[in-house]
Amino acid sequence: MQELINKALNGNVRSIARIISIVENESQFTEEIMKTMYPHSGNAHIIGVTGSPGAGKSTLVDKLIESSKADGKNVGVIAVDPTSPFSGGAILADRIRMQRHAVDPAVYIRSMGTRGSLGGLSRSTYEAALILDACGKDVVFIETVGVGQSEVDIMKIADTVCLALVPGMGDDIQIMKAGIMEIADILVINKSDRDGSEKIVAEVQTMLDLLKGKNWVPPVLKTVAEKGTGVKELSNKILCHKEFLQTDPEGRNRKLRQLTVEIEAILQRELAKLTEHQWGQHKDEQLMEKLLNRETDPYTVAGKILEDTLLNTPTRD
Amino acid sequence: MQELINKALNGNVRSIARIISIVENESQFTEEIMKTMYPHSGNAHIIGVTGSPGAGKSTLVDKLIESSKADGKNVGVIAVDPTSPFSGGAILADRIRMQRHAVDPAVYIRSMGTRGSLGGLSRSTYEAALILDACGKDVVFIETVGVGQSEVDIMKIADTVCLALVPGMGDDIQIMKAGIMEIADILVINKSDRDGSEKIVAEVQTMLDLLKGKNWVPPVLKTVAEKGTGVKELSNKILCHKEFLQTDPEGRNRKLRQLTVEIEAILQRELAKLTEHQWGQHKDEQLMEKLLNRETDPYTVAGKILEDTLLNTPTRD
Asked: Is the ipTM of this complex over 0.95?
């Protein structure tokens, strides 16, 4: 294992891919891998790209990869797909185009699933980003399809979050925007050659007025990613935001918030394992029958399991 | 407290409202309330209505309330709004119309927030549904705005899940559908007087073909809720599904799955409280500084907190 980790840390692409797969499968080696990787991480600029469905996020990322490569950067990409046990995983047409970069040794692209069909980013997405960072990528893009919790989760790992919107969406979508607006560092109105582009810019600006006085007020940029229009400006703004984080106290605060969330997430996973185990010990037909007949209740059962978890879990002392 | 609970159990609307508020604020009384309520629950038919943004879910629920009232049913409604700290909570225009039922003593309508801006259903949504059930509602509708995890969570509590779709949505939305299709007991193509209605019915049918051979294959219904078209048929199908659950082993299995999820959720909440406390004890500037400098890592820190939680939490023994 240590040899594989070392190869990955030296930038060997096949080793990186294997390491990510091992972590993705939640193997017993995950903790060892992550503990070894961690001291080497912290150098990459992690850029989240999220937004409404149909906003052209993949095309934007495709153009941003081009731009990063032109600057001589070593690029990692994590493309997050919603996992559906029903459809057996969806393939997004736009993603196929992005794959043209995959033959380039300076670009590593990885598709990953979400936590359940509409769930947030899985732990392994965080871990894969950290691994790519530790293994020498200068820039890591994380693209999430904008359907739910994954949009919120992106701010738990990215240094810079780009939120892509498009002109001509319905009212419910506007509400969705209101929810995710607060996570954006940069707002991108893509497909801005469409009707309604000025309207959405104005709406977004009105919302952003509420942020006035903050050290960083998200800029609003218009792009037409398909034609490459506005992509250079977007790349520049992303770099501006990176510099902002390096010089403003907000950069440090953001890192502190992310660390807190990170530790809580690891705790949650470990606790889930413990309770699952204890619940497995308690769960039998008799108990379930009593629950179904309402002779006992979930609160009483959970209380008992909790007590047993705390009493019976062996510790390392 | 016991007096208030008794009044609520006897159907007093103001007491029910107060009890739900107490539970929503996660007070010390939550456990007592829920333990008292639990044996009285299990009689209501809990119906989830979810679906894509703009699918007309509120209008559908509004018509279904009418239909239930006409059958002499005592109705509870929980309307779940995405909570946004940024916009300070969104008001949905459609919801206002539904409020016309609120003056009717046989209908109780309650708005509740989600867990964070795009998160899943909060624990208190489950608890409110159970309270309405225990307090004598025959039917409880839970309407979720279809933006994320709350769509998935609805199947953890509802007996019958109606998924509303509309003709003429983009490709990304179709993928979203693929993810949520598996949670639906009944598929409703609303606004079916629009162009593309046959196309979406065909698409949905193709997906449903994968479920062939199951004891319940979700029916696909066309409605125009605004005009009331197809609402009677939908009400009937909902009753059919209720009967199915009462006679088929799947009904019992579903309840068992929901109980398991319920107990796990309570355990998670209680454990989160414990680790939060321990994390609060550990978290100091020195530790955060070491994390920022990568002298330690989140995995090591989480391991230490977990150990201390298990060692130092007093149990009732």
From this structure: no
